Amino acid sequence: MTRAQLATVKIVAVLALAAAPFLLSPFSITLLNYVGIYSLVAVGLVLLTGIVGIISFGQAAFIGIAAYATAWVSAINGQSPWLGLVLAIVLTCTVAAVLGLATLRLQGHFLSLSTIAWGLSIGFLFGNIDGLGGFNGLSNIPPISIGSYALSEGWQIYYLIWAFVVAVLILLNNLLNSRLGRAMRTMRGGKTLVESLGVSAYWVNLTAFVIAAFLAALSGWLYAHLSRFISPTPFEPLAGIEYLMMAMIGGATSLLGGIVGAAVIIFLKNAVQDYLPVIAKGASGQLEIVVFASIFILFLQRARQGIVPFLSRFLPQPQPKRPEPAPPLPLRNQPAPGEVLLQVEGAERRFGGLIAVNKVSFEVRAGEILGLIGPNGAGKSTMFNLLTGALACNSGKIVFAGRSIERLSQAKIARAGIARTFQHVKLRPRMTLLDNVLLGTYTRTKAGLISGALRLERQEEASARAEAMRQLERIGLGDHPFELAGNLPLGNQRLLEIARALAADPLLLVLDEPAAGLRRNEKQKLAELLANLRREHVTILLVEHDMEFVMNLVDRIVVMDFGTKLCEGDPAAIRNDARVQEAYLGSTV
Ligand SMILES: Nc1ncnc2c1ncn2[C@@H]1O[C@H](COP(=O)(O)OP(=O)(O)OP(=O)(O)O)[C@@H](O)[C@H]1O
């Protein structure tokens, strides 16, 4: 699909939305109003759950905070609903930020369980705070007015609701294609990957959490002024589960999925309410829940990815544009060749009684390739993890570019200029080659939430895309920048990881067993790339088990065995060292 065709589809969709009140019955418009309101929550959950990977059952509580805030402002204190909107957003986002700060360091299901805990307790509060109407709720909530024009009819508020939905879609779509959005889309690749790019996983989680709460707040505000009455029931965790169902049924990885999911659940609910009493006289209330549970189980078994991702496979995709030349991103000040860049002094790491790295010292000088080799279990990976911050040293010092890094987080070490690759490749398989490499530019760019959502960072984004394209071409994969990374063979995936690391313009490139699992011709291609980088004086620390692969590539070698440094020297000296030959099971190397 060309960009012009895509624009036409979007214009037709907006015109259809605008024409709906003239064509549909008031009841259908009421249903569409609820679809819009719930879409906002579901789209927030797409971001939070589908994209960032945090399963939240607690969104209904955020909707409730906003709904009660605006009801308190407008129904109890007689102020404008717009003032209610301000309080709703401030209060909801503040509560979300506090809850996020307290819980987002929890991992996996513990985090999800915590959302049930606070969802329950906030839901319980609404009925028990004096002055908020108790379990009977609050009525007489006024309609939203624009000037003196009150949006009291369904079709009037319809336009406001859908204007919000369309604006949210546009802003979130922009965000997901920006620097921060790419970091969010990487969160499901695991904390180690994200932090290795210089991204703080915690802050990205918190940002997504507050954005989802913000969208729930918008929804709660609209809900209160549409229904003009609120009570605690719709804000209990049971409703939170329904929002999660909307996001999952629509397709939790697609923003449109949030809208489609909300529509499917609301129309289905309506149909079930219409037809179930006819089929099951008397017991329809209880059966409704059973019917929904059955549909959801069927869905989980048959179409887990959701409706929109499933259908989009059959639809023509928009043609992406190749990056055009743009001014370069800022470069780091590289140290002078020969200067000591990394100094490891007496690094030690124990696992219980086992000393995996035992007082190891060595240094890497700018412009050289140093090989760190050793047989299985020698402690190379542990040493690698100490350098990149994935593990902390028990004792010893690691100084990088004049700065102690042994206590720094992975993200801070990445920002200091160490870029790494992984022994078990960590790419985002459903992202394009270009987007994967773009992730590497995170530490060299600045755009945040607002500039990403409003596309204020076009210049920087153009420069980052041009840089990513340059790195793709540098590794020989520039022909198909929009191929999905997961489609590449392992050898090319490793090259892609190197391109991503190079896009950070690192002071030091650290490669973790890059030749592991590669075929002969893939190894050759990798060796050629590393030889080219060597000619360009890129400083590289190569941690590798395969000694033959290392020999022709590196300037110096450090050999580890049983956690200690066995010896150090140039490749020829190492090849002839009897201790090294013995360590490698007596084989001649
Ligand atoms: N998280 C851990 N907990 C306990 N022991 C560990 C841990 N990580 C590594 N070890 C142990 O530390 C020693 C060094 O392991 P390490 O993975 O660093 O060696 P390696 O040289 O990278 O080996 P390989 O080439 O097989 O990857 C091994 O005995 C290993 O079992």
From TrEMBL:
Main subcellular location: membrane
TM region(s), chain numbering: 7-29, 35-55, 82-103, 110-129, 157-176, 197-223, 243-268, 275-300
PROSITE patterns cross-referenced by the UniProt entry: ABC_TRANSPORTER_2 (PS50893)
Molecular function via GO: ATP binding; ATP hydrolysis activity; branched-chain amino acid transmembrane transporter activity
Superkingdom of the organism of origin: Bacteria
SMART domains the record matches: AAA
InterPro entries (alphabetical): AAA+_ATPase, ABC_AA/LPS_Transport, ABC_transp_permease, ABC_transporter-like_ATP-bd, BCA_ABC_TP_C, LivM-like, P-loop_NTPase
Name listed for the protein in its UniProt record: Branched-chain amino acid transport system permease protein
Species whose genome carries this gene: Chelatococcus asaccharovorans
Classification of source organism: Bacteria, Pseudomonadati, Pseudomonadota, Alphaproteobacteria, Hyphomicrobiales
